[in-house]
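Write out the bound-state structure for FE2/S2 (inorganic) cluster.
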Amino acid sequence: MSLKPKIALFQCQWCLYSPTDQEWVDSQLPENIHLIKTPCTGRINPLYVLNAVQGGADGVMISGCLPEQCHFKTGNMAARRQLEEFNDFLDYIGYEKSRMRFVWLDLQDRGIIQKRLAQFEKDLEALGQASNLVTRVKVAEGGQNA
Ligand code: FES
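---
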């Protein structure tokens, strides 16, 4: 893959305790990573993930709080259960399971988000582009398809 893989990063707004990490995610993410901030991973509807996949995401990362540290008690557990099942479904229809990755972060995990994203990017490069489920076609200026 010559271009960097496109990554949709769904991030629980509470999971990055380090202001430096949150600042990096909020304002210094590389262009190939699209941030979708949520109040809790439990609020991530699988259709949002499907939307990212259909829009051309080569990978989806879900970043949330550790199981016992969710601000909404069990939001992350529900998200994990639901999104893992949805991941099975995506795999069944042609979007490899390894294209979705969960990252559960702890208070001590400063700087981990950068490392996890870099590793995910590397793994996605090995997989190549995911174009099976892309349904939205880029429209050029003036309304003509590119
Ligand atoms: Fe962070 Fe629920 S508040 S995953």
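---
Strands lie at 7-12, 33-38, 59-65, 100-105.
DSSP finds four helices and four strands in the chain.
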